[in-house]
Amino acid sequence: MSKLAINGGTPVRSRPLPPNYPGAVVYGKEEADFASEVIYAQSPFRYYGPHMKGAVEALENAMTRDFGVPYALAVTSGTAALIVAMKALGIGYGDKVIVPANTFLATAGAVVCSNAVPVFCDVDDSLNLDPADLDRVYDEDVKAVIVVPILGNPVDMDPVVAFAKKHGIAVIEDVAQSCGVRYKGRYAGTIGDIGTFSFQMNKIITSGEGGAVATHDVKLMERAIRYHDQGMIRHRDRYGIDSPDDAFAFSGQNYRMNELSGAVMLEQWKKLPSIVANMKKRHDRIADALAAEIPGIRFRACPDPDGCIGSNLGIIFPTAEATASFNRALNAENVQAHILYGGKPVYMNPSLLHRRSAEKDGFPYNYPFNKPVVYTEDMCPKAVDLIPRTTYIPISPILTDGDADDIIEAVAKVHRELQVVV
Ligand SMILES: *Cc1c(COP(=O)(O)O)cnc(C)c1O
């Protein structure tokens, strides 16, 4: 018997593990050098300057080359990327968009800010969207489905894409948390009609803030470029886009990425393969050892384990209470674990549950939909059940094998001493 740290015993680790910022913890000379080149070149704007370095464009080219997708556009955030994606698809007032019940507030918020209305699809044991629930939420007002690979595990895309094809709706992949995830060999974000990425600090690679969209469709790319840059297209020759503004321009935003972010992001992009390889290696080491040590331990399901990037290990406990005590005890051993989003489906956020936007008169919820939008707390029962009993252990790309072994030891210790039933 070894006494739990939470009960006054000696913690498995004397010091915490590295913080959970996979891209930022590998910042180094590469990011610093290219960012300072941009400074010395006095050219922080992507479209003009005295000695342009072309950092943002180089980032986009690296993305298209490495992810096997013809078009990528860097923007200012993952939220901006979602809004650009919806505007590229022509989604707006009078449209509904299917959003998974387990996601960050931004996924659903971006739908509302695009003047459409989110409707919520349940999750399955993968904690990602359950394709079997799509029929329940679909009606003729639905124009797109957003899938969200949560914390490094792919979404089961085949049934989602088949469903979308059958109904003639678009698939948007919100890959904010999962850059580098693959599904059946293809990169998440390049499988649906349009993929959106975030480079905020909590994500896999980062410039503090930033984002991108990716697509195979030049028409979507043209609309994305226009929406992100006040309706304009500055480098038409780059994509062979020759549509005249007179006929094609519309009012847009300024979601342009700056060159300092582009410089940092290009160097982060080059590090993505090693970040993913390191996370995946430790993730699998920990998962394999725990499976051997704790018979019956239940991991979060994954439709394609090879495509998982290993940024987090998800464990499902029988009750929310068991999960909470496990997390408290594990954190006292100096190994982090946490549930997501306060243990609740995204639609439990007051702004969504009460159907509020920044606009007057209930816009865009006031549209006379054929089937009115009604939210109830229990509309996605599996999400209500699973989210508070799924804990995630972050796996940093700079963990050593020794750190991974500490995680194994701590989880096994807490499991044994708390007698959590799996
Ligand atoms: C972080 C996140 C976003 C928003 O990204 P930002 O760059 O912070 O705007 C969108 N969707 C999901 C699933 C996220 O985790």
From TrEMBL:
One BP term from GO: polysaccharide biosynthetic process
Active site positions, chain numbering: K203
Keyword 4Fe-4S listed: no
Top-level taxonomic group: Bacteria
Residues where N6-(pyridoxal phosphate)lysine is found: K203
Molecular-function GO terms, alphabetical: pyridoxal phosphate binding; transaminase activity
Keywords: Pyridoxal phosphate
Entry keyword annotation includes GTP-binding: no
Family in the record: Belongs to the DegT/DnrJ/EryC1 family.
PANTHER family referenced in this protein's UniProt entry, alphabetically: DTDP-4-AMINO-4,6-DIDEOXYGALACTOSE TRANSAMINASE, TRANSAMINASE
Protein name according to UniProt: Glutamine--scyllo-inositol aminotransferase
The species this protein was found in: Paenibacillus flagellatus
